[in-house]
Amino acid sequence: MGPIPEGECNLKKTSKYAYSGTYSTKTGYHSSMEKRAETETTTTHLSQEWMKEVWTIQTAPKLKLFIWKIKHRALPVGNRLEARQITIEAKCIHCDGEETINHLFFHCPYAKKVWELILFSGEFTPSPQNNFDVEWKKLLQAVTLPPVGMGICPLAPWILWSIWSARNQKIFQKRSFSEQETVTKAIVDAKEWLEAQTVALTSQHKKHPQVRDGFEVICRSDAAWKQEHKAAGLAWSFYQNQNEKISSHNQSTTFVISSLVAEGLAIRAAMEHAISLQMRSVLFESDSLQLVT
Question: Where does the Reverse transcriptase zinc-binding domain start and stop, copy by copy (predicted)?
Answer without folding.
Answer: 23-115
